[in-house]
Design goal:
The chain has 282 residues and is mostly helical. The chain is built from 11 helices and no strands. Among the domains are: 18-81, no CATH class; 97-106 and 117-208, Alpha Horseshoe (Serine Threonine Protein Phosphatase 5, Tetratricopeptide repeat).
């Protein structure tokens, strides 16, 4: 009998525990004291909170999964729009810049009047900025980053990203100027002066006041002087060649005339008088 009482008490404890578990779980979920391995509530807020937690802890792929669930399971909810930014941010933080750029660009296309568009546009520039190569390499990513930030500055002058975008635009222009200057010096060393001058003049025209003005001005003058010097040498060579050709032609004409005279005198001995008269007449 005592045993039966104990068993009933134990069963009662388990029943009470079973009744309390859902309440405990609900409370813990709202207070975010669950282990990260627990399944969150299948609500847009719960999924988004879990995604944010994973993102904060540096688990970007896991965060992306939860953001994607919000977007796919609750496409009409306000959280779905924020989740799109979350997906792009997760890709960016995981250094998947090409995929992140696509995600930010898609967000801009789908939500052109959303308040987060300036941020997305800024991040598009950052995706390209993080892929910029050294100045002796192709600068396509630099150009794309500059273009994105120039759009931001033009369209959203009141944005909190405006000042930073202007600073980065200047940095991109400096990199592009250094690239053109580097290529110009390469052509200069190879004595391809016209190609070098084109590069130097482009720097002077497109990238003034980025720190290269003095160097560019010096190389423009030096390159122009080299071009004049080169053209002078070429002109002199052409004149000398022409004079040589004329001398050769005159010599050949003189030789032919002399041979003709000798042949005539041989055949017609009295013709010497004719040649003398012809020469006097000339």
């Amino acid at each position: 009998m005592y045993v039966n009482v104990i068993q009933k008490r134990v069963q009662l404890k388990f029943i009470l525990f079973a009744l309390l578990v859902p309440l405990i779980f609900c409370g813990c979920s709202s207070l975010n004291i669950f282990s990260k391995h627990e399944t969150p509530r299948a609500t847009p807020e719960g999924l988004y909170a879990r995604a944010s937690e994973e993102f904060k802890n540096g688990h970007y792929k896991k965060a992306q999964e939860y953001f994607l669930r919000v977007k796919e399971e609750y496409p009409l909810h306000d959280m779905a729009i924020l989740a799109e930014i979350g997906i792009a941010d997760s890709l960016y933080s995981d250094k998947e810049y090409t995929e992140a750029e696509t995600a930010y660009s898609d967000f801009i296309s789908l939500h052109p009047v959303n308040e987060n568009v300036p941020y997305a546009l800024f991040q598009v520039g950052m995706c390209h900025y993080n892929q910029i190569a050294a100045i002796d390499r192709d600068q396509t990513e630099t150009i794309k980053a500059k273009d994105a930030w120039e759009k931001l500055v033009a369209r959203y002058p009141e944005s909190k990203f405006f000042t930073m975008a202007e600073k980065l635009i200047r940095e991109c222009k400096q990199k592009l100027a250094e690239h053109d200057f580097y290529v110009g010096k390469f052509y200069f060393r190879q004595k391809k002066y016209h190609a070098a001058l084109s590069r130097f003049e482009n720097v002077a025209r497109e990238y003034a006041n980025v720190g290269l003005d003095y160097k560019v001005e010096y190389y423009i003058e030096e390159t122009k002087a080299k071009i004049v010097e080169e053209e002078t040498v070429i002109l002199k060579q052409e004149l000398e060649k022409k004079e040589k050709e004329e001398k050769e032609i005159n010599k050949k004409n003189g030789d032919k005339k002399s041979e003709k005279k000798k042949l005539t005198e041989t055949l017609f001995p009295d013709s010497s008088l004719y040649w003398s008269e012809t020469t006097d007449a000339k």
